[in-house]
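Following up on my earlier message about magnesium ion. Here are the inputs again, as you asked, copied directly from the submission form:
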Amino acid sequence: MNAIEIKELTKKYKDFTAVDKLDLTIGEGELFGLLGVNGAGKTTTIKMLSCLSKPTSGTAVLMGNSITEKPDEVKKIISISTQETAVAPNLTVRENLEFIAKIYSVPDPKAAADNVIADFSLGEKENARTKTLSGGWQRKVSIAMALITSPQILFLDEPTLGLDVLARRELWNVIRQLKSKMTIILTTHYLEEAEALCDRIAIMTSGKLRAIGTAEELKQLAGKESFEDAFIEIAENAGKEEIK
Amino acid sequence: MRITAFANRNIKELIRDPLSYVFCLGFPVVMLLLMSVINKSIPAQANMTVFRIDNLCAGITVFGLTFLMLFAALLSSKDRTSSFLTRLYASPMTAFDFIAGYYLPMLLLALIQCVITFGVSLIIAAVEGVSLSIGGILLAIVTLIPSMILFIGFGLLFGCKFSDKAAPGLCSAVISAAAILGGIWMDVDAIGGAIEKICCILPFYHSVTAARLAVAGNIGECGKDLLIVCAYMIVVAALSVIAFRQNMTKDK
Ligand SMILES: Nc1ncnc2c1ncn2[C@@H]1O[C@H](COP(=O)(O)OP(=O)(O)OP(=O)(O)O)[C@@H](O)[C@H]1O
Ligand SMILES: [Mg+2]
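Thanks, got it. Here's what our run produced:
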């Protein structure tokens, strides 16, 4: 089964088209990378898929549920780590995690919190108020809150933003362990991260899908040795076409 | 489950803010003590009884409730402007879960605040030898429940529609209106004229009057006042629900 089927998904803000007739199919258990320059429409796409923003036209079906017709069903099976850190500042790390677990009716919130606290090495800070943590630590908590619900589809919008090298590697390992247990959509500006983690990668510019495939395929398509060069080639070509 | 989880979070968020104690509990108690001291210095011949504890306690309790409005506004507007609420909008939380989760903890806090303010009033009354019946006070707390919902509703409405910079400003406008036009510090009937008319149109004076009547053991007479407060309560609570639903479906 396909986990996500996106059909002509479009978002317009007044005259400006942020996402332009996006067509995309993502398989169950796939780790899918969404790449693109700033303002390409990655976050807007994720917001529509997670029912935070209504498409202007088009739709998407997540595990058989349409985002436009059955948002309540979609919300039960997805989880999102937003581009911005999203935590309750006056709750402790553990309280934040258990709170989210309860909202999603996770059977044993305490045990679920124990698990993610171990996965993310949050143990030493679990009883600290979240607002007293450093930015990177708050970020880890924010991502852990998305994982604690064991969703069928997980959206990670720039998860490693602001994390140090060690924390980033740790998160990579967590993501690798989740791989094939759930479908994951990941956006990032770190190309080596996309190359290391993702099964398939899509490159967007100006709201349009420009190329899609494995990192290897995209390198061949662009005729480049490194994935970074391939990304630049594809994004710049799209830019030139846009001007014509 | 979702409502209790969210209500729990909101209670924690409120009681972990030291300002809650200063404004919601400290302030009404200090006001009570201060006004009682002032009352002592008013000569008996002046025949001024607004500041006597049996008149004062209902007014100060309503005044205390207006500060809860400020906290409801701050909490909801801060949640809205941070990404925290965005995350919850993508969760299985329904509009009803959110609204109940905001209202219930605030209501609990309002009840605690009323009990403390009236409790301190009982002590002051005992010290000053003024008679104040516990039965009347319990009834007064019941008559104040619509006012609690009204003020919390104002707070959530402002929090849903305005930033955490603008919402407190609007709240202070309501706090001032309630303080001046609620008959807390003055005898509205004795003023008369246009001011009395404005007082009677707004809900605040009726909140205070209903509670005062209950304290004095005349609960039977407060029907009209309660009715007016309830009408305002329904309108404001409905508006707050509408505003919240609008926020939920608006683009984030
Ligand atoms: N609420 C909004 N109103 C108007 N325009 C918006 C709104 N949200 C996003 N946009 C515009 O839509 C475009 C796509 O934004 P989006 O946040 O999806 O980009 P992105 O690919 O996530 O970029 P970044 O890598 O910087 O996070 C941008 O040009 C942005 O200005
Ligand atoms: Mg983005």
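One observation from looking it over: Residues A 42-43, 83, 157 surround magnesium ion (ligand 2) (CB under 6 Å). Hope that helps, and feel free to reply on this thread.
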